[in-house]
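ingest -> validate -> predict -> emit
validate: passed (alphabet ok, no gaps, 156 aa)
predict: started
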Amino acid sequence: MAFCSNCGTQYADGGRFCPKCGAPAAAQPMAPPVYAPPPQPPPYGAYAPPPQAPYPNYAPPPQPMYANMQAQPRYGGKSKSTAVILAILFSFFTWLYTFKRDGMKFWACLILYGISLVTIVSGIYLYDIQLLIFPAIWLWAVIMALARSGNWYAQY
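emit:
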């Protein structure tokens, strides 16, 4: 049995503090805490394990968006050759092929064609305007179909 150096109370030998006054027991060397070293990976020879990703495992890594990045063709994607053939054969009706993005062009050209056809049916012949409108719209559709990349149609 040990006695407190502060108040003289008797306490068990293993106690670190006096149960009456709370004073620390006689200076006893405290053992430092024992920490286990982190587990070492088994040796791989010349192979080094891949570095850990800086992002959590539950989220995919962010993908960079570059203009020159190749698009992955997806099932049901559009093709540039189909758009060019439609433009050559059917003029502005090729914009029905990509209507989500070219819908306003389609409607504008349809209105211009409708106005010119109404003038022909009504007997007002505006050959100068009609000779400019029809080829200009046809060229516009063909050039737009040729200018767009195949990736643009594949992503559509």
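The mean pLDDT is 76.
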